[in-house]
Amino acid sequence: MVTFMESPTRQALKRFLKSTSGKIGLGLAVLIVLMALLAPVLKPYDPTTDRNYLNRVKPPSVEHIFGTDNLGRDVFTRVMHGSRISLRVGLLAVALSLVTGTVLGLLAGYFRGSLEVVIGWFTDIMLAFPSTLLAIAIVAVVGPSLTNAMIAVGITQIPVYIRLTRSMVLSLRELDFVQAANALGAASPRILLRHILPSTLPPLIVQATLSIGTATIEAAALGFLGLGAQPPMPEWGAMLADSFTGGYAMNSPWTMLFPGFFIMLTVLAFNLLGDGLRDALDPRALK
Amino acid sequence: MWSYTARRLLGLIPVLVGISLLVFMLLHLIPGDPATVLLGERGTVEQIAALKERMGLNKPLLEQYFIFVGQLLRGDLGSSTFSLIPVSEELARRWPATFELALAAMFIAITVGIPSGILAAVRKNTRLDNISSIISLLGVSVPVFYLGLLLMYLFAVNLHWLPPSTRVSSNSFQSITGLFVLDSIIQRKGFVDVIAHLILPALALGTIPLAILTRITRSAMLEVLSQDYVRTAKAKGLAERVVIWRHALKNALLPVVTIIGLQFGTLLSGAILTETIFSWPGIGSWVYMGITNRDYPVVQGGVVFIAVVFVLVNLIVDLLYARLDPRIQYR
Fold first, then answer.
1. CA B303 to CA B19: how far, in whole Å?
2. What is the CATH number of domain A9-37+73-285?
3. Which of B45, B129, B228, B323 qualifies as a FRET site for A213, CA 20 to 30 Å off?
4. Å from B45 to nearest chain A CA?
5. Nearest CA in chain B to A247
């Protein structure tokens, strides 16, 4: 039972703790974040000087628990350091799309008119492209690099946030508390930032968490296609690409099994966490 | 219905204009200019100047855009800078392979995803539901290229159950329609071989849509099952099977139809990765070659083609939806 003393935050926390997927997701996400933070401490690593040709494509052993790749590099060390890249790309790409999309969505939903038409058109066009394809198109043109891949992945996610924010603003602006602020003579920026934005945050947080998963997959896909991180960077998608295009993925499967597994684990972590946050923050949403 | 269809078709125009604008802008965002990039380091100053003239890059930007759109409308997507083959010709040649793969993947997704979604909803909170949830969660979390490599390693390399790549074993396979499954049925030979080649890539490509369809079907079904009319049907004493199949399913499948259309886009862009892994001679693997060779007309043509197909599929789905759901007014 919810008592009168409980704040909404406490209620949300309680709901989150009841969600199995939320707890598992949080656990996995913490594990991956820890791996990223501790990698330089546990296994200092320089991707340019770690070749050991005497140790090429060795299967997993006590010394190299994930085996070694075609240049004799320790796969475990590279996977660990890869988490730093994947997390950074995921978080920054989502931050880019979240901020841009929310601002555009707020403006479109609040001011309506021709601004809404233009932003709506822009959204429709972006959504006319499957997101991975759009990211590929952007990077193929501006040139392959990790930064470009990150920006491209961020751009493809913008329409999701525009739509989500706009639809919420459309209903919020008609509510009494917003109308009251309006009647009291509050300026538009104040209404948008102080009254409307806070109410849009819970669904946005849920969406952003889920987006980290999508962004991780897309950035890895770009890495796999040679459009993201460039060798010798230990990015997971690029490691799979090395293994596949180098022709040793099938004979030395550990070179692709482990990096791929960690992509999946990261995506799974944020998908589960997003589900849990939805249970906590947006209890009316259908599962 | 006709005027609704006409209006939807008219509504396509701004989107198609947008796609052409976006692709045009992308090409002009290339650091340097397209002529220099197309010729690469091989090009001399004179050659670049000549190509610039030929490509009309000295003309005003707006004029260039209209020329570009004119070419698009005539189906002229330029030629590959690598093989010199016209892009539209190669797209037409490769489309059946991609189409067949996408259809097979969608077939797997629909025939497995929808029934398991229904089952999970009907047996909500049972072990069956939990297993189905876990599998669909894994399905949406696995990258298609990783799954492709895993399937290939397991079923082709280790177990030798299925062939690892390409569309057929023999070079003498005669293609009539470009759709090998259909060809093998018409010619009454090679059917098993064609299907065997299709299974792994289709499975890799179909897993994400499968997982998404399972989740959507489950939640749509749960919503419908809680409606009053379903309760009434149950209260009348109808068998559970009748309630599910005749009363609930029809309405639950409506949102699923939309998702199938949207997933088609995932399939087409996923094809770039899947076709590359399984050496599938479709549009996807060709776009990948275009990317690695920095063959811009190929990448551009492939992107425009896939985007247009995606838009058309979604239009068809919307029209279908309007027919299926009598509540939608053809406004």
1. 10
2. 1.10.3720.10
3. B129
4. 22
5. B277
